[in-house]
Write a structure and sequence with these properties.
By secondary structure, the chain is mainly alpha-helical. The protein contains four helices and no strands. Helix 2 crosses helix 3 and helix 3 crosses helix 4.
């Protein structure tokens, strides 16, 4: 397990695991972890809380948009 992955709260580790599997052919785990962290921070800033379900939805959207941007660069 990467250090970035360990730095996430235990309740978000499964989110990183699921999204890493979902985006394994597109993004490395380090990028997934960064998106999960950014999603958690954004949710806390905007709505004041960050449930794992909310963080996963936000992070998934970030990862999809990032994948589209990468595809356009190619």
């Amino acid at each position: 397990m990467s250090q970035t992955h360990d730095a996430l709260s235990r309740d978000l580790a499964p989110v990183v695991t699921r999204l890493s599997a979902e985006f394994k052919d597109v993004h490395p785990e380090s990028i997934v972890s960064r998106c999960v962290t950014a999603a958690r921070n954004g949710a806390e800033d905007v709505v004041g809380y960050a449930t794992p379900e909310l963080v996963e939805r936000i992070a998934r959207q970030h990862l999809k948009v990032l994948a589209l941007a990468l595809a356009e660069q190619r």
